[in-house]
Write a structure and sequence with these properties.
The structure is a single chain. This protein is α/β, with parallel strands linked by helices. It is built from 20 helices and 13 strands. The strands form three sheets. It has a six-stranded parallel β-sheet with strand order 3-2-1-4-5-6, with helices on both faces. About 50% of the residues are buried. The mean pLDDT is about 95.
Length: about 450
């Protein structure tokens, strides 16, 4: 099988390739094509992959190209992991938002809207090319904001595009571990949008064990989300929120922590990865060793400002390893080999959540087989969660409208309607600020 990775010069691509190296079954990936607009980054990641594959029998062949059509033609699977505007764009998103006193995180609030506005047109172009050049391919979308981008692509690819995220998988794994269960044996009742979901139950041998967790303050304080949100708030919710809901429930504290930090997350990653890519350009530097050290630092500092604001401490060692590559591989295996699996994915609603229309992309458990991902029916969300999901989905729809029409008015409306942007005037200034620095937003008029 041919796997094409868009954004193939991206830092996390070696995680995907490493997962492929352990797969020796029939119907496996035999050819990986890396595509990126940056040839130097492609060469750097190709070096890391070559060192990782050394001594591995039948390692998938790796080629790299800057020609998008060549990369897509004849692909069986396409992993989309692009970053329009690069990490410099992410740093700008954060800086401009924080200057207005609102959150600039890359998927939540103003930063997520800005990232979506410049990413959606590119993602739509990719979807159209896939439909033309590889109509039988399955697209697995890693690109953030994952739910929004998946919905944009689904308008051209239907159910053949599926979004993934490792955040709900990690949350389910932590809850199961605290309850003394193997994650593979637990059914996680999770529902929402990407980076906006809740674990409402965790069934082990048919019994919901979440009430036991919520009733035990010691257990609640023993894992990341318990420390991040606090036992009292989790008991009030009767659920365990995705970590990204910390930006909503403790927005003032999160914004303060980000404004007080020496560098934003985007600026940190921009500087860190600049050092990595510069280092790998030296043929005398062991590429894989440098990548491993850089990745360890990246994972350890994930959401550090939020943990500091909550007094949640350091990340657990078990959470420092990768995750999304395993979700992607499990999804690809289930489709390619008809090996049925249950995975939390971003797919079209199809009536799963009554509050949203059928084309809205949501994040829920899905049964996956050779015909794709099928969302599992879930109970209605409580009112507070329904309101938040509907409000954020309405914002996503305004982003899609702005990207389609080029309407500056729709862009302002997207910012102004977001729960974490507190003024129409702030929304107008945000659009002015983002369009002034991002060439990818020149289409707004």
């Amino acid at each position: 099988m041919k796997l094409t990775i868009l954004g193939g010069g991206g830092f996390r691509v070696p995680l995907v390739y490493g997962a492929l190296l352990g797969d020796h079954a029939d119907g496996r990936v035999t050819r990986v094509v890396l595509h990126d607009v940056d040839a130097e980054r492609l060469r750097a990641i190709a070096r890391v992959l070559a060192e990782r594959a050394a001594g591995v029998p039948d390692a998938p062949e790796v080629t790299a190209t800057t020609d998008l059509d060549e990369a897509l033609r004849g692909a069986d699977f396409v992993f989309s992991a692009i970053r329009v505007g690069g990490l410099e764009g992410r740093a700008d998103d954060e800086r401009i938002a924080l200057a207005e006193g609102v959150l600039g995180q890359e998927t939540v609030g103003a930063g997520g809207i800005a990232f979506g506005l410049r990413t959606v047109p590119v993602a739509v172009d990719i979807a159209r090319r896939v439909a033309r050049l590889a109509p039988d391919a399955w697209v697995i979308n890693f690109t953030n904001p994952a739910g929004l981008v998946t919905e944009a692509m689904s308008r051209h690819l239907g159910d053949r595009v599926i979004g993934i995220c490792d955040s709900p998988v990690g949350l389910g794994r932590r809850v199961a571990r605290v309850l003394g269960a193997r994650p593979a044996e637990a059914w996680v009742d999770y529902v929402g949008l990407n980076h906006l979901g809740w674990v409402r139950g965790l069934r082990i041998a048919g019994r919901d064990e979440l009430p036991r967790l919520l009733a035990d303050p010691v257990l609640l304080g023993s894992f990341e989300e318990g420390r991040l949100f606090g036992a009292d708030w989790l008991r009030s919710l009767g659920a365990i929120p995705n970590e990204y809901l910390h930006y909503y429930y403790f927005n003032r504290e999160a914004v303060h922590a980000y404004r007080e930090a020496g560098r934003t997350r985007g600026a940190f990653l921009r500087d860190q990865q600049a050092g990595f890519y510069a280092g790998v350009a030296d043929p005398a530097v062991p590429a894989l060793e440098l990548w491993d050290r850089t990745r360890a630092e990246r994972e350890a500092t994930y959401m550090a400002e939020n943990r500091e604001a909550a007094g949640a401490g350091e990340r657990e060692a078990e959470d420092l390893s990768g995750g999304y590559e395993n979700v992607a591989l499990a999804l690809m295996r289930a489709i390619a080999r008809d090996e049925r699996a249950t995975l939390i994915l971003n797919v079209r609603n199809r009536g799963t959540l009554a509050a949203l229309d059928g084309d809205a992309v949501i994040e829920v458990p899905c049964l996956v087989d050779a015909h794709g991902a099928h969302p599992v029916a879930v109970d209605p969300l409580p009112g507070h969660a329904t309101g938040l999901v509907c409000a954020v989905k309405a914002v996503e729809r305004e982003v899609l409208d702005a990207a389609r029409s080029g309407s500056r008015t729709a862009a302002v409306k997207a910012f102004a309607l977001h729960p974490l942007v507190d003024s129409v005037n702030v929304a107008r200034r945000l659009v002015d600020g983002y369009t002034a620095v991002h060439p990818g937003l020149a289409y707004l008029r």
